[in-house]
Amino acid sequence: MEVKTLLLQQWASCLDEEDWFPPLEKVLEDITLEQAIWKPADGSMNSIWELVCHLLFFEKRFLMRFLGETENEPDAENNESTFQLPNETLENWKETKKEYFYVHRELGKILAKSDHDDMYRQIPKEDYPLVLELKSLAMHDAYHIGQIVFLSKMQGAWPEKRSF
């Protein structure tokens, strides 16, 4: 099996294909605005929405860099600022999810269309080529999807019976 096939499967499992962990699209499906902004009282964790903003920041930045649109890429002072929320409205929560799903799918399309040279070419402002950056982003997604599931369970928002 080739690297591209493995990476496409890993990329899809983070968004909409069930694997060893639930895909983010399913995890966020029924999350309300109140659940999205909820944090444990001790402030030890980011909210679900903050985590989605964080994932979106890194995927969107990488997409812009891959497309050569570095002047339009999102910018952050530090890692902590990548968790920043827009105004906490239901419309903005829906928009954040929609944008994340769009960016994730666009990166998947790029990977699917990439030939060997595209997969291994150096990307402006990145340390690694497409294949290695997407592998790292997928692992990053999986890590934070686990946190989102945990936050859902802490709130009692995780259904008792799921298909995964």
TrEMBL record:
InterPro entries: DinB-like (IPR024775), DinB/YfiT-like (IPR034660). Residues 24-148 form the DinB-like domain. This is DinB superfamily protein.
